[in-house]
Amino acid sequence: MEINVLYEDNHLLFIEKPVNIPVQADQSNDRDLLTIIKEFIKERDRKPGNVYLGLVHRLDRPVGGVMVFAKTSKAASRLSDQIRRNVIQKQYLAVVRGTPTDQEAYLKDFLLKNRNENKVYVSSYKNKKAKKALLDYKILESKKGLSLLKVDLHTGRPHQIRVQLSSRGWPLYGDQKYGEKVNKTGQQIALWSHSLTIEHPTKKEEIRVDSQPPAEFPWSLWKSID
């Protein structure tokens, strides 16, 4: 697999995650991204020993786009701290079925994961096991029964964007888990990690790295995507 490196220095590695690849080893036993990138670095840099690569955040298996990995333990620790403090800015592009009620809005829910089903549900705030989920969205374009949204994610809950939008009647295009009534088997989910903005772990300067979705349907519908 070809690794698309978006930015790299001694502490950080930003790559474009391919769709339908697990970020780390799971029960499927399919090749995972973390292992693939370690092997890529080992071969490229001719490293004799093990390659250190810190996993500090995740993307759902069917989702593609920009991800950042830590190349040093110092970077991993400082990036993890930024995530805990909500310093890292995560922006996604999403194509949903229908048109959201408001042009832009702030969504707040409490989400509960059913581990047996590997599915997340909107729950009551009174449920102590439910976790708060926050995001902002803005409609960029709408056509042919679909809408392109820019989503700023403020918490990193499992399946968060998919659940929060589908619970309001706007399932993502291609999402069979949370939009099984309107999506068909084989359709690729239209959710893309578009940009990550972090504070560099040693230079203390802001770094933003972008990734564009593929030029195929439904992404090809939108003029907003360069």
What does this structure look like?
By secondary structure, this protein is mostly beta strands. Helices cover 14% and strands 35% of the residues. Strands 1, 2, 3, 4, 5, 6, 7, 8, 9, 10 and 11 form an 11-stranded mixed sheet that branches. Strand 10 and strand 11 form a beta hairpin. The chain starts with a strand and ends in a 16-residue tail after the last strand. The model has no long low-confidence stretch (mean pLDDT 94).
Write the layout of secondary structure elements.
Elements: E1 5-8, E2 12-17, H1 33-44, E3 54-55, E4 64-70, H2 73-84, E5 89-97, E6 104-114, E7 119-123, E8 131-143, E9 146-153, H3 160-166, E10 191-199, E11 206-210
Parallel strand pairs: 4-10
Antiparallel strand pairs: 1-2, 2-4, 3-4, 5-9, 5-10, 6-7, 6-8, 8-9, 10-11
Could you name the key traits of this structure?
mainly beta, 11-stranded mixed beta sheet, 14% helix, 35% strand, globular
Give a quick precis of the structure:
The protein is mainly beta and 226 residues long. 14% of the residues lie in helices and 35% in strands.
